[in-house]
Amino acid sequence: MIHLIKGILTKEECKFLTHQFDIDRQINPSFDKINETGNSYGFAPSHTFNTYLDKLKSKILEINSNISDLTNVNTFVREYKNNDFLKKHRDRTDISTTISICLESTINKDWPLCVKINNQEHFVNINTGDGVVLFNADKIIHWRDTLICNENERVLQFFLHWIPVNYESKKTKTLL
């Protein structure tokens, strides 16, 4: 299931977190793998980002009444620039609910999150402050095609991963 939440973070919150990313980047090495994301730059952010967990979790619980509570598995932030991408994949077995929030986009075009459910492809565009929630992210294929933009442009995404309390995960992660 895919759900778009417009304005899950305010423009001011996004600007603040973008600034925090630029600060954190000075001390955090990227953990991205070129074969999965191109040369994008991603890392687990500072505690500042984690202060938003409860607010964001409550929004997700509001839209899916089948889930009573969520446990955070991990958070990270990734900066995509020209020629970066996100390889087709299913999330890890300990992740079931994922939200991707656009903190900043300096590109002048859409760059959708692509999701394949029941052999049907969906393309979801989000603006700064918007989030896309994927339920059963460990079972559905999702990706971002190669970003083509100017060298000085970027898209900054904030990712939060949860597992519902008492969730039973599948055995293996699948990367296509």
Structure description:
With 176 residues, the protein is an alpha+beta fold. The protein is 19% helix and 34% strand. It is built from 4 helices and 10 strands; from the N terminus they run βααβααββββββββ. The protein has helices spanning 11-24, 34-37, 47-50, 53-63, and strands at 2-5, 41-43, 70-80, 86-89, 97-105, 113-117, 120-124, 131-135, 141-144, 155-164. Strand 6 and strand 7 (120-124) form a beta hairpin. Residues 170-176 have low confidence and may be disordered.
The strand count comes to 10
Mean of the pLDDT scores? 88
Class in CATH? Mainly Beta
Tell me the number of helical segments per DSSP (H or I, 4 or more residues long): 4
- CA radius of gyration: 15 Å
Q: What fraction strand? A: 25-35%
Secondary-structure element pattern, one letter each = EHHEHHEEEEEEEE
Across the major sheet, the strand order is 1-8-5-10-3-2
- State the CATH superfamily name: q2cbj1_9rhob like domain
Profile the largest sheet: 6 strands, antiparallel
Report a brief summary of the structure.
This protein has 176 residues and is of the alpha+beta class.
